[in-house]
């Protein structure tokens, strides 16, 4: 048992070193978007803010969602790296339980388990608030994204979405603002 604890703590420290947001205790179970309609969610979304992740290091981040098969959405995530190159990854999102269509699971690699992608709030045409959380025994890891259909989002909307995250214990002061300036992000459009 002690060896398992040491291994768990070592993994936790390794993840924490990669800027993931780890917290003590179990994941919260926030309310998700009522009557979520994936067909209205399709298309391009610009990342406005995110919690730090080890797998996302660029700016100008976008997500593009298209229908792939019945009940499956193709996910294309792209970002501009510091050297000017565009880094992209393709995955798929599926609803885990049809009774809760706003709780999706996203996979990017066949050999890794899917990650939670819960739409907490969206108006489909302006903003989306996404939250994901995974339990690791005594700790949990949180991910969150504020997305917009445009490269900017009104401060009032961001504050409202921060309020939702704060209400479930997310440290919104850890959210990173994503650069979406046209001059800097122009290579993303090519």
Q: Could you say which overall geometry the principal axes of the C-alpha atoms support?
A: globular
Query: What structural class do helix, strand and pairing data support?
Result: alpha+beta
Number of helices: 4
The pLDDT mean sits at 88
Look up the CATH topology: Lipocalin
Q: Which CATH C-level class is it?
A: Mainly Beta
CATH superfamily: Calycin beta-barrel core domain
- What ranges have pLDDT less than 50 throughout 5 or more consecutive residues? 1-18
Taking strands numbered 1, 2, ... along the chain, how are they ordered across the largest sheet? Answer: 2-3-4-5-6-7-8-9
Could you tell me the strand content as a percent range?
Answer: 35-45%
Number of strands: 10
What number of structural domains do the residues give?
1
Outline the structure in words.
The structure is a single chain. By secondary structure, the chain is an alpha+beta fold. The protein has 4 helices and 10 strands; from the N terminus they run H-E-H-E-E-E-E-E-E-E-E-H-E-H. A hairpin with a 4-residue loop joins strand 7 and strand 8. The chain is globular. The protein starts with a helix and ends in a 5-residue tail after the last helix. It comes from Oryzias latipes. InterPro entries: ApoD_vertbrte, ApolipopD, Calycin, Lipocalin_ApoD, Lipocalin_CS, Lipocln_cytosolic_FA-bd_dom. One of its GO terms (molecular function) is lipid binding. Keywords: Disulfide bond, Glycoprotein, Lipid-binding, Pyrrolidone carboxylic acid, Secreted, Signal, Transport.
């Amino acid at each position: 048992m002690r060896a398992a604890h040491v291994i768990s703590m070592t993994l936790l420290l390794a993840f924490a070193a990669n800027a993931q947001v780890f917290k003590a205790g179990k994941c919260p179970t926030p309310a998700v978007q009522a009557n979520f309609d994936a067909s209205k969610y399709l298309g391009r979304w610009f990342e406005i803010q995110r919690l730090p992740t080890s797998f996302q290091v660029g700016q100008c981040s976008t997500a593009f969602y298209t229908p792939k098969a019945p009940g499956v959405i193709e996910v294309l995530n792209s970002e501009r790296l510091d050297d000017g190159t565009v880094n992209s990854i393709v995955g798929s999102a599926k609803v885990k339980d049809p009774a809760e269509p706003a709780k999706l699971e996203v996979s990017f690699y066949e050999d890794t388990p899917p990650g939670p992608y819960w739409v907490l709030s969206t108006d489909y045409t302006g903003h989306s608030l996404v939250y994901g959380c995974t339990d690791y025994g005594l700790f949990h890891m949180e991910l969150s994204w504020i997305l917009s259909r445009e490269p900017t989002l009104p401060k009032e909307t961001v504050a409202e979405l921060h309020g939702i995250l704060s209400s479930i214990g997310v440290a919104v002061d850890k959210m990173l603002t994503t650069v979406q300036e046209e001059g800097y992000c122009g290579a993303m459009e090519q």
